[in-house]
Amino acid sequence: MTDKPVIGIMACNRMVGVENAHAVMERYVRAATDYGNCHALLIPPIGQGGARGLTRRLDGLMLTGSPSNLQPHLYGSDSCAGPFDTGRDAVSLAMIECMITIGKPVFGICRGFQEINVVLGGTLRTDVGYGGNDMIAHHAPDEVSFDGMFDHGHEVSLTSGGVLRAVFGADRIRVNSVHYQGIDKLGDGLSVEARSDDKLVEAFSANIGGCQVLAVQWHPEWQVERYPQSQTFFRLMGKALRGESIAMPAEVHA
Q1: Does residue 110 carry a catalytic annotation?
Q2: Would residue 80 show up in a list of annotated catalytic residues for this protein?
């Protein structure tokens, strides 16, 4: 029997009592392993010197969402509210660079979507949470419940000729939305897969020297068993882990 491929899943620093822990929410692991049909290896957010050696042992990388924001200096800004996770920043960005260099697939969700954009020279904006100034609200009000936070959502338009439009069989879908930061300048070589009605980039893809990239700003891992399109996202990941090609989109905005 052929072994399943191994996906590296990026962890975050979280306080558990009085101690720091390296944590990944179970929903990410279950979605990846169940629908990507793969094994998972959690990547601790501490030190980045071993990134190259670790990436050579993986078949792909998945970057999760997180309560933390990227540090603004990483994309040339001097203003952004925390919380921050400096350990995750160091490790995740180094891992992305190494995976791209050796041509292995990279998938991103929410913060992971933003991390990929920054590694490829893109920038972020920090004014998208509660809407206003011609922006829709990309995050629920603070007073809602945890489930209510993930119930908040909006529609996105899928790019004609794109990967997601082809596999979802639709030109518009509704997605959940739980983020305060968003893309300002799109990173080099990335192709737009989806935009919200306020024109914010909500998904992108790329093939950079054989490294297949697919990332979304929303959370397909949330209650994944309820949503066939979310399951498809992780099945695409499983396909890429096995060295199969993901069809490339037509619209590029570098």
Answers
A1: yes
A2: no
Structural domain harbouring 143: 6-241
Query: How many structural domains comprise the chain?
Result: 1
Annotation says 97 is catalytic: no
What is d(CA 170, CA 188) in angstroms, rounded to the nearest whole number? Answer: 27
Q: How far apart are CA 110 and CA 143, in angstroms?
A: 21
Hey, which bits of the chain come out as E strands?
A: 6-10, 12-16, 19-23, 39-43, 60-63, 106-109, 124-125, 153-158, 172-176, 182-183, 191-196, 201-208, 211-216
CA-wise closest residue to 8 among 43, 36, 37, 35: 43
- Domain presence at residue 171: yes
Catalytic residue among 38, 80, 98, 110: 110
> Quick check: 73 and 179 in contact, CB under 8 A?
no
Rounded average pLDDT per 10-residue block, the chain, 254 residues: 87 95 97 98 85 90 95 89 92 96 97 98 86 75 81 92 95 91 95 95 96 97 96 97 76 38
pTM over 0.85: yes
- The residue annotated as part of the active site, out of 115, 193, 202, 221, is 221
pLDDT of residue 14: 94
Indicate the DSSP class of residue 245. P
Spatial separation of the C-alpha atoms in residues 158 and 171, rounded to whole Å: 5
Is residue 254 included in any domain, yes or no? no
Spatial distance between the Cα atoms of 9 and 64, rounded to a whole number of angstroms? 7
Look up the CATH number of the domain holding residue 165. Answer: 3.40.50.880
